[in-house]
Amino acid sequence: MEPLKRPLSGLAILPRAGGSQVPVSPDEIPVVAVASGKGGVGKTTVAVNLALALAASGLRTGLVDADLYGPDVPRMLGLRRRQDAAQLTVFGAAGTAAARLQAVERHGIQLASAALLIGEGQGLGVTAGLAELLVRRLISDTDWDSPDCLVVDLPPGTADIQQFVFALRGRPVHVLAVVTPQAIAHQDVRRLLAYLQRRAGAPASPQILGGVENYSGLICAHCGEVTPMYPAAASEESVWTFLERIVSVPFSPRAAADADQGRPVMLTRAVPEQVTAFELLARRVRDRLAPPAQPRGAASD
Asked: Total structural domains in the chain?
């Protein structure tokens, strides 16, 4: 697939099959919401490396760290704010300097995160309504440089922030579910999927892209053999009976240590098994984001 071309107007240009192109306004940029039923499944790792893989494939990619209570994306990209913030603005009047946030560019992707607004030792204790306002700012009130898609790292579960993102209007929202092999993780992601299915038919209904099986095995640091980390969920409890498993990503101690130092595996490329999985995931996501081909013989502008 060819890289997206950039028009002078600042709109994204999505190529159609046959060479025709369709402009997309900034308010219509697709969202890829990386979600999970429970915490501890490596969702942020998937979101960061997916964004990097999409950018490497030619897409201008924005990454939104919407996990307000554990905003770890910047650190995984080598960015840290150690100085505490005296205050946090969750709403700015139109036309004022506080009305817009600036995206930070890092390793070819654009980033917006609450971790850049507060010190890394500060907790963000906000009510549900204020949390929604802050996530709205991160997504809609950030001065993005014409991204072709936004990857949004969500908190686990289906609470207020997740519901707000799933119900975004005016732009396609695609959900990627991250799950580990054990039964309890499958049980909780079933709850997530059940919630999304209940939303089907609503004015703003997200589309489910599929699933990522994270921690599918442990890569031995000495011999490279992959061994199971968890017992697999029984077939009657597994989400793979009705959810497409796009990729399986094994755990690597080396990749985990690098990530703690701000060097994700899509930058170091130190673990080929993970790189291959994230590149495949990016291709599948990109294919789903591409607009449908026009019927043969259809007129184009």
From this structure: 1
